Amino acid sequence: MSRKQVFAVAQMGPVHLNDTKEATVARLMEMLQEAHGRGARWVVFPELALTTFFPRYVYDDPAEYDRFYEEGLPSPAMIPLFDLARTFGIGFYLGYAEKLVENGIVHRFNTSVLVSPTGEILGKYRKIHLPGTKDPIGDPEFEHLEKRYFEVGDMGFPVFKTDAGPMGMCICNDRRWPETFRTMALRGAQIFMLGYNTPTRNIHHNEPVHLREHHHRLSLESAAYQNGAWVMAAAKCGSEDGFAMIGGSSIVSPTGETVTRAVTEEDEVISYNCDLDLGAYIRRSVFNFAKHRRPEFYGPITGQVGVEMDP
Ligand code: CDT
């Protein structure tokens, strides 16, 4: 038996520093319309989808960077997208910079929201694995200041019940960490939604561009297979004011195979009619967690951060 539903991934080309949120949301809405035309029930948009990838820039004064953040859900800029999605009966994942004030203290997170096809806000995820630095390294080509502009997410890795099955979210760098996906899978997730902005150049090491794409694919495919789950991954890519980012938005099946993949570095919708029961045999057999996991030997995974060797 198969249980099919069309999923779409809406890759975005560059969003430049001076692009307006209104124009950017209009692009998202155009892709939502295309996804609707393909019969999609769910759409995944990228990380920080409403703005350029601003953590590449150095700002000191919140007055300079406040404009990149959204307050309230939907924020005023998001309302037309939320309305259109509800009209079409499409659920979606959307990445954005979140600002909130609690007890007089300002908090900022790199966040995604999951909205059901009926327009219900199912919940949020706040990025946990923030890459880069808090202080500038002094080389504008390689700045990546997520630790400056965001707090570490405080919601863990929640999983949400949806009409397509249990769904989890993560954001960009989270996908390189197997802990991300296994935690969600242990909570029952069978579909992983994620957005990313991955600079073509590694900020840590001068590695060839093909490896950036290889590691991206490797992370998605192994996460899918090792948890018997679908992975939907949406890039923001191309050259944002001269800063290049990889494309490669993908839908990966629970067998670990990329079933469809974007070929441009522009706005591009990809879609696939996913058999949502395909992962069941994997979760029943090789990755039957209840039968085969040995948590008594996994202590270092939650008990320590760095490498600790026996003397
Ligand atoms: N946005 C984001 O998390 N980007 C990171 C860049 C890391 S550079 C080593 C990513 O993992 O793609």
Give a verbal description of the structure.
- This protein is α/β, with parallel strands linked by helices and 311 residues long.
- It has a single domain (4-303), classed as 4-Layer Sandwich (Nitrilase/N-carbamoyl-D-aminoacid amidohydrolase).
- It is 25% helix and 26% strand.
- It contains nine helices and 14 strands.
- The protein has helices spanning 21-37, 62-65, 79-88, 146-149, 178-186, 209-227, 280-284, 289-292, 299-303; strands at 4-11, 42-44, 91-102, 105-115, 121-126, 159-160, 167-171, 191-196, 230-235, 238-240, 243-245, 250-252, 258-261, 268-275.
- The strands form three sheets. Strands 5-4-3-2-1-14 form a six-stranded mixed β-sheet. The chain has a six-stranded mixed β-sheet with strand order 6-7-8-9-12-13, covered by helices on one side. It has a two-stranded antiparallel sheet with strand order 10-11.
- Helix 1 links the parallel strand 1 and strand 2 (42-44).
- Helix 5 (178-186) packs parallel to helix 6.
- The longest helix is centred in the last third of the chain and has 19 residues, at 209-227.
- The relative contact order is 0.17.
- The mean pLDDT is 97.
- Residues 47, 131, 144, 172-173, 176, 196-199, 202-204 line the site of 4-methylsulfanyl-2-ureido-butyric acid.
- 4-methylsulfanyl-2-ureido-butyric acid (CDT) binds at residues 47, 131, 144, 172-173, 176, 196-199, 202-204.
Q: What is the 3D form? A: globular
Side-by-side strand order of the widest sheet: 5-4-3-2-1-14
Task: State the domain count.
Answer: 1
Helix content: 10-25%
Low-confidence residue ranges? none
Structural class: alpha/beta
Elements, N to C (H/E): EHEHHEEEHEEHEHEEEEEEHHH
Cofactors and ligands? 4-methylsulfanyl-2-ureido-butyric acid
CATH architecture: 4-Layer Sandwich
Based on CA atoms alone, the radius of gyration comes out at 19 Å
Count of strand segments: 14
N- and C-termini, Cα separation: 54 Å
Number of helices: 9
Main pleated-sheet profile = 6 strands, mixed
CATH topology (fold) name = Nitrilase/N-carbamoyl-D-aminoacid amidohydrolase
The fraction of residues in strands falls at: 25-35%
The CATH class: Alpha Beta
CATH superfamily: Carbon-nitrogen hydrolase
Q: What is the average of the pLDDT values?
A: 97
